[in-house]
């Protein structure tokens, strides 16, 4: 059910655009149904949870990593769920009036965020928790950066993202560490086991770092005020009520088990106290109401984290109570600011005056919330703060954690000071928003807020009041969690009156101090202004970011010199140093054989000579023929090694390549650029020699140190049993590793399409249609029909005759290779290449028109059909209950022809045809290879022919290595 | 397993020639480098296959003398892809001649710009100073 609810959020979020188009602003109200349903569902869980039960939901996800979609709802999770869904509902309703037109993006993100937050507070599996954790970060980033055209939004969004993600990464390391140390990723199991050890300490502290960054604790606090660039309802929901509480939630859940680890309490108390005072101090300086609240949130988060992280029963109770109290009053206050902003167009408290009279309801509600924030009785904030002060006073006696009394007193002093600041900025807020200011006209109200607009803040504000009287009930609700904390004595329950106690005195002191701070605000402001400007955390962050950026610029400038050669050289140098360098530590030389056979030696030597020669060749055609020689040498070496398939394919590829290259070289200068003998040439030679040497040495070492069985062991039987083929290489291609081939086919299609688009630029079809229409009818007598158009001087009758005779035989041979390939050397590649060569021959003999005669199809379509065939072969078995790419075999015999009586005895005319379904895949391969060759020949042959005729091809300059570009040959149209 | 020195050295020579050509400026020569280098790399697979054997065809030869079929399948894929890629590169060379009259790979302009940034000790274009003032002037929503 829970998983369905989380999913429902995401589904509704994805429908936001559609919904806002159909329902307009009411889309917000409709979307609010999802968190509302969650709220109701959570309420129904109440009775069983209060009776001590838990709600658990587990769905397997990655069993091999012990990761499951596990959810667990105990008391704290339940409260968080209620907060997330309840406030989420109210915020979405509020948005209905807040936005004048529907920002579908914000709506979708807000609902999706609510879903992620729901998952976060209920996830039991830490990996799942982390996923939701980062999802909330991403949604927050997108919501803050809602207006990407504004620098403030971009910068604030990026800062929030980087700071919280950095913390999140620390947390991920912590999660993995804890998971490995305890053998489980389940939060409840880890807490129940209370593991110990150095790894657990490190893991717990790393998770704490993540929590602190999310909850905007010093020194990570600076992202939160920036996040106020988001729309106000978003700030109310994410950056006050829920997301920033994720860190507190995590601290509260982990504290019972990990509060005792070294450094935990120290970090939580020191950073918490500093954050509380720092936030309060800064809040006093703000003139923007929203920023004032933001710093107030920072301050409160410090306070709550301190309580939640202490790990005593009393502090745990106070922490959760504060968490709820803060969610209620801070959401109210933010929504109030939203209404004011809407009504007056400003949030600047120096400009606002006399709003209290004009918006009395809002002023009362905001007053309630501000009083709750300040800790005035009888509001819930007072109750929570009382219990907090009570928990702290217990610390003076140790309360089971053995904190020195002096430190405890210091801590209390800090919290009282922080509370005084809270009182001061609460007053400042209410005064700034609603009070009549002397010598100031009342601010004009653009339009009065509707009732619906006020409903959400009113409800939340009244809740702040009501909860103040529900102390005992809340205590009994929270008792299940408080009881799970092992340390410290039992606290007294939440309540408005416990007699004249020390906490009450501290509260009164804080309230009084706060009032004094507010009353003498002018003097305080002067003191604040004289405060020395420290290098704050945000300044450090900015410098760090700048450093990272300039480091990137410097590194890129050093490493990427701009020329392809130097980039390659750098990569290869690293290769040489890394590989050859590590070979230096080799204890013994590898055992090698000089050669397998003398033929291998001879071919090897010739191939090497051809390769070395290739380095100095200056003529383009010579270079291509020399490169072809190395290819043919390689194919002979394949053959000697027992790889006839490779040899066959290599020979065919070499032939086709050389022909294709020659088609292009017609239009290029004869010689390469002859640069003066540069010194760089010797460096390149040195680099080449070292790379070659490293390659040779490393392959010898690698091959000689192999002790394992080859991965292909056993394939010679499996190939036949599962692939029904005798040619193991072919079975690997079309069955065992067919996905590789699938990928390769795609590369072929892409490359051929690339070639065609570089030549034809727009469509490969246009040139062809033109040729087809010119088909000559009265050409029956000629050897090749397409040859009629050719210039008689460039015709070769012998070539035409040979082509006419050879073409059929070549096509037949290609089909034979295709069909026989499963059991004998051959296959789709070889067959396709032979067919392609046959087409090339037709083109060479009689030009473009003849190519059209030979293959009156569109190459792109041919390749498309090939892809469809191969994909269909992949999927077809699944339709019949098999697995994708499963092979089947069929024996095809025809009974009537099996024993045809002849004078020489019965003869099997048809034979026993053993068909394997993977042959169909090979047919796809065949079609694609033919299509590719056709496409390339049509582009580089017929296409370039056409460009030459239209003077659009490059024209080699005589006695030069350059050519006249097409644009210089013809004026550009 | 004792590899064949001849094959390994031949592969090394082909790769070396390939590296020398790859660091050229002419696209056609770079293409030659790609071709000869991929031949060299394919030979490395032969070394990895172990000693020369009989074709991997079931029933034709004794199973024990069969050469390792798996590297062969990989090389077969590589051969055909090299062909497609080299067709693409030669077309690029042609196109380069058609547009510029030569097929030299020119230096990257963007890299030169970054070098200029580094010399000025400047930050990149994508860098944005993240400032939020305490006065709230920078931070206004809507």
TrEMBL record, chain B:
It is found in: Cell membrane. Keywords: Cell membrane, Membrane, Transmembrane, Transmembrane helix. Residues 122-142 are annotated as: Disordered. InterPro entries: CPA3_antiporter_subunitC (IPR050601), NUOK/Mnh_C1-like (IPR039428). The chain crosses the membrane at residues 6-23, 30-53, 73-94. Coiled coil: none annotated. The keyword Transmembrane applies. It is a multi-pass membrane protein. PANTHER family: ANTIPORTER SUBUNIT MNHC2-RELATED. Belongs to the CPA3 antiporters (TC 2.A.63) subunit C family. This is Na(+)/H(+) antiporter subunit C. It comes from Propioniciclava soli.
């Amino acid at each position: 059910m829970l998983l369905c609810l989380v999913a429902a959020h995401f589904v509704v979020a994805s429908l936001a655009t559609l919904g806002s188009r159909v329902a307009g602003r009411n889309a917000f109200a409709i979307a609010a149904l999802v968190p509302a349903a969650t709220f109701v569902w959570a309420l129904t869980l109440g009775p069983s949870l209060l009776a001590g039960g838990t709600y658990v939901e587990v769905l397997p996800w990655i069993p091999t990593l012990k990761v499951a979609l596990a959810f667990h709802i105990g008391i704290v999770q339940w409260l968080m769920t209620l907060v997330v869904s309840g406030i989420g509902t109210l915020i979405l309703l509020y948005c209905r009036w807040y936005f004048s037109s529907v920002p579908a993006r914000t709506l979708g993100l807000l609902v999706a965020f609510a879903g992620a937050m729901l998952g976060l507070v209920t996830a039991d599996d830490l990996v799942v928790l982390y996923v939701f954790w980062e999802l909330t970060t991403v949604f927050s980033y997108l919501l803050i950066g809602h207006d990407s055209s504004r620098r403030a939004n971009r910068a604030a969004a990026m800062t929030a993202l980087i700071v919280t993600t950095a913390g999140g990464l620390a947390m991920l390391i912590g999660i993995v560490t804890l998971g490995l140390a305890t053998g489980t990723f389940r939060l409840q199991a880890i807490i129940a086991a209370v593991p110990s050890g150095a790894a657990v300490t490190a893991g717990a502290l790393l998770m704490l770092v993540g929590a602190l960054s999310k909850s905007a604790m010093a020194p990570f606090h600076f992202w939160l005020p920036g996040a106020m660039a988001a729309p106000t309802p978003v700030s109310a929901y994410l950056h006050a009520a829920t997301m920033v509480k994720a860190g507190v939630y995590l601290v509260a859940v982990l504290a019972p088990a990990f509060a005792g680890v070294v450094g935990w309490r120290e970090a939580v108390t020191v950073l918490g106290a500093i954050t509380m005072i720092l936030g309060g101090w800064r809040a006093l300086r703000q003139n923007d109401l929203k920023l004032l609240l933001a710093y107030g949130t920072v301050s409160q988060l410090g306070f709550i984290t301190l309580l939640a992280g202490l790990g005593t029963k009393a502090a745990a109770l106070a922490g959760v109570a504060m968490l709820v109290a803060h969610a209620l009053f801070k959401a109210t206050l933010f929504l109030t600011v939203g209404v004011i902003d809407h009504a007056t167009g400003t949030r600047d408290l120096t400009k606002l005056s006399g709003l209290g009279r004009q918006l009395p309801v809002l002023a009362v509600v905001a007053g309630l919330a501000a009083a709750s924030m300040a800790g005035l009785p009888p509001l819930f904030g007072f109750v929570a703060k009382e219990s907090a002060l009570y928990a702290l006073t217990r610390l003076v006696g140790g309360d089971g954690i053995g904190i020195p009394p002096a430190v405890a007193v210091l801590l209390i002093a800090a919290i009282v000071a922080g509370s005084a600041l809270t009182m001061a900025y609460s007053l400042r807020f209410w005064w700034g928003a609603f009070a009549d200011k002397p010598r100031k006209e009342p601010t004009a109200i653009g339009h009065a807020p509707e009732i619906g607009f006020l409903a959400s803040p009113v409800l939340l504000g009244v809740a702040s009041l009501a909860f103040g009287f529900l102390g005992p009930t809340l205590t009994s609700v929270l008792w299940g969690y408080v009881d799970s904390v092992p340390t410290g004595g039992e606290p007294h329950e939440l309540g408005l009156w416990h007699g004249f106690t020390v906490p009450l005195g501290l509260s009164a002191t804080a309230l009084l101090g706060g009032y004094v701070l507010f009353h003498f605000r002018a003097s305080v402001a002067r003191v604040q202004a004289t405060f020395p400007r420290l290098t704050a955390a945000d300044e450090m962050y900015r410098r760090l970011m700048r450093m990272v950026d300039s480091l990137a610029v410097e590194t890129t400038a050093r490493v990427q010199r701009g020329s392809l050669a130097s980039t390659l050289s750098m990569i290869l140098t690293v290769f040489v140093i890394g590989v050859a360098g590590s070979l230096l530590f080799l204890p013994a030389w590898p055992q090698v054989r000089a050669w397998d056979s003398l033929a291998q030696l001879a071919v090897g030597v010739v191939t090497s000579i051809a390769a070395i020669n290739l380095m100095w060749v200056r003529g383009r055609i010579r270079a291509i023929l020399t490169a072809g020689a190395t290819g043919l040498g390689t194919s002979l070496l394949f053959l000697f090694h027992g790889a006839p398939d490779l040899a066959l394919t290599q020979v065919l590829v070499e032939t086709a390549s050389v022909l294709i290259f020659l088609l292009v070289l017609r239009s290029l200068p004869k010689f390469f650029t002859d640069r003066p003998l540069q010194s760089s040439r010797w460096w390149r030679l040195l680099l080449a020699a070292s790379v070659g040497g490293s390659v040779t040495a490393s392959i010898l070492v690698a091959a000689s140190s192999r002790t394992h069985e080859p991965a292909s062991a056993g394939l010679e039987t499996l190939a036949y049993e599962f692939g029904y083929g005798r040619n193991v290489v072919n079975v690997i291609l079309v069955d065992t590793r067919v996905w590789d081939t699938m990928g390769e086919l795609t590369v072929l299609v892409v490359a051929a399409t690339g070639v065609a688009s570089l030549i034809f630029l727009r469509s490969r079809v246009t040139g062809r249609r033109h040729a087809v229409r010119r088909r000559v009818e009265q050409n029956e007598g000629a050897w090749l029909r397409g040859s009629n158009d050719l210039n008689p001087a460039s015709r070769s009758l012998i070539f035409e005759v040979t082509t006419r005779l050879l073409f059929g035989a070549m096509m037949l041979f290609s089909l034979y290779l295709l069909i026989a390939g499963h059991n004998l050397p051959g296959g789709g590649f070889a067959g396709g290449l032979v067919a392609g060569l046959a087409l090339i021959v037709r083109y060479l003999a009689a030009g473009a028109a003849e190519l059209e005669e030979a293959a009156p199809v569109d190459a792109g379509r041919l390749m498309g059909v090939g892809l469809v065939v191969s994909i269909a072969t992949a999927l077809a078995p699944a339709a019949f209950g098999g697995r994708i790419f499963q092979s089947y075999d069929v024996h095809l015999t025809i009974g009537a022809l099996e024993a045809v009586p002849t004078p020489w005895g019965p003869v099997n005319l048809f034979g026993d045809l053993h068909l394997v379904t993977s042959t169909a895949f090979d047919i796809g391969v065949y079609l694609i290879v033919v299509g590719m060759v056709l496409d390339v020949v049509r582009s580089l042959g017929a296409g370039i022919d056409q460009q030459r005729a239209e003077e659009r091809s490059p024209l080699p300059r005589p006695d030069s290595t350059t050519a006249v570009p097409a644009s210089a040959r013809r004026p550009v149209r | 397993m004792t590899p064949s020195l001849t094959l390994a050295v031949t592969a090394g020579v082909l790769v070396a020639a390939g590296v020398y050509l790859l660091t050229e400026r002419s696209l056609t020569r770079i293409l030659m480098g790609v071709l000869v280098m991929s031949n060299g790399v394919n030979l490395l697979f032969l070394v990895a296959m172990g000693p020369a054997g009989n074709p991997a065809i079931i029933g034709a030869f004794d199973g024990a003398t069969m050469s390792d079929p798996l590297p062969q399948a990989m090389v077969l894929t590589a051969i055909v892809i090299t062909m497609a890629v080299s067709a693409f590169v030669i077309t690029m060379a042609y196109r380069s001649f058609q547009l510029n009259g030569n097929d030299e790979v020119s230096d990257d302009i963007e890299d030169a710009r970054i070098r200029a940034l580094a010399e000025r000790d400047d930050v990149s274009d994508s860098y944005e100073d993240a400032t939020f003032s305490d006065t709230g002037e920078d931070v206004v929503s809507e």
